Amino acid sequence: MRMKKGNLAIETPAKETGAIKRRKGSKKLYVDFYYFGHRITRSTELDDTPANERKVRAFLNRITERIENGTFKFAEAFPGSSDQEKAYFTQKEGREYRPEPHQVLFGDYAKEWMLTIYPTFGSPTKRNDYKEALESRILPHFKNFTFYQLTSMELFKFTESLVRQKGKDKGKPLSTARKVNLLIPFRAIWNDACDHYRWVLKSPFDNLKKKLPKTEKKEHTVIRLHDWLKFLDNLEDHYRPIAEMMILTGMIPSELGGLKREDIEGDYINVRSSYVLGEEKKSLKTAFRKRQIFITQAIRERLQIILDRSSSPYVFIMEDGKRFNSSRFSKLWQKAVLTAGIPYVTSYSARHSFAAWSLIIGVNPLRLVNLMGHASKQMVYEVYGNYVEGLEDDAEEMLDYFGRDFVLPRKKKSPVPFRDSTGDSLGSSVLTTGTI
């Protein structure tokens, strides 16, 4: 430093602050000083030599001078520090911490995102899908990438490397639809990071979908009646009436899990809620999915069996008495399909079969819209209409299976409570006796 005395400039040694440390077992030099009351100890990555010690001392002296004149920036002096530290000291310095994209690792930001943003998602299905995609696919590959390195080319190479990790198709490339779904949480984190740090960056996700090969949309197979009956013969006894309720009503497993005894009112089943991944959801997939299903004689017979065997407040239960579990049921379903030797169908195929069979036996499409819980007739035709061909031969047997009271429209809802096979009124006994 230079000081003036009269007309003379006198050189004075710079004020020294902090200390240079040496740690046992390390050949590197460390700086040690206090900043805003916090002790800062950092490795210089310089070997312990006299020349390097002079460099470190000069570095500490510059820190002291900048701290005193208010120009010291912790984040610039120690770029390897955590984002939390940089943000804290930047705030203390009276500035806003805005690291550049090349200074932030995707893995570090994703970890913070999982603690702050991820828990705000209300859907358990969404949380589960995001977590699985991040932990099994995205983070193992990208955790050490900076946001600056996340280019469309890197994302494309990543998607090209994705293959099935288990099952009979292990090692085969994932479908384009599956790749796009895996990128959804990736894109969410990217967008939140850009918003948080106010980066103006070209998104690597733009036009990526166009680069991916197109794959045919996988359609759910409609079950032929003779295959359905063969499937039921190979399904465990406890689950046969449950599977039949699915194909007789168009309900899906999550809706079965959410159905309570109190939802059966008069001659109608009220689909009001669902049960997904161990969590009850008061809302369904769409507002239209909240619907009423008339209890036909065929439905009545299966429902009677189901409710007679348990006093649970939930209509559908597993054989061990626990609440209906769609994942466990799906495995039992797959086992029965393989044992029966029929074309592969999933449990969701029952819903598609319900729609296709209904159209074949003459159910009014507008009525089917309500039964399925869709918004329009167009949806019914687009999703299920192309499945009708080839099923005409089963029409008469389908009608017998559903019952003519399913096809004939009712003029109004019956005010008479649903009665059991003896003709006794249910009244309020549903919840207290466990029977219909």
TrEMBL record:
<protein>
    <submittedName>
        <fullName>Integrase</fullName>
    </submittedName>
</protein>
<comment type="similarity">
    <text>Belongs to the 'phage' integrase family.</text>
</comment>
<dbReference type="InterPro" id="IPR022000">
    <property type="entry name" value="Min27-like_integrase_DNA_bind"/>
</dbReference>
<dbReference type="InterPro" id="IPR050090">
    <property type="entry name" value="Tyrosine_recombinase_XerCD"/>
</dbReference>
<dbReference type="GO" id="GO:0003677">
    <property type="term" value="F:DNA binding"/>
</dbReference>
<feature type="domain" description="Tyr recombinase">
    <location>
        <begin position="211"/>
        <end position="400"/>
    </location>
</feature>
<dbReference type="InterPro" id="IPR010998">
    <property type="entry name" value="Integrase_recombinase_N"/>
</dbReference>
<keyword id="KW-0233">DNA recombination</keyword>
<dbReference type="Pfam" id="PF00589">
    <property type="entry name" value="Phage_integrase"/>
</dbReference>
<dbReference type="InterPro" id="IPR011010">
    <property type="entry name" value="DNA_brk_join_enz"/>
</dbReference>
<dbReference type="InterPro" id="IPR002104">
    <property type="entry name" value="Integrase_catalytic"/>
</dbReference>
<dbReference type="GO" id="GO:0006310">
    <property type="term" value="P:DNA recombination"/>
</dbReference>
<dbReference type="Pfam" id="PF12167">
    <property type="entry name" value="Arm-DNA-bind_2"/>
</dbReference>
<dbReference type="GO" id="GO:0015074">
    <property type="term" value="P:DNA integration"/>
</dbReference>
<keyword id="KW-0238">DNA-binding</keyword>
<dbReference type="InterPro" id="IPR013762">
    <property type="entry name" value="Integrase-like_cat_sf"/>
</dbReference>
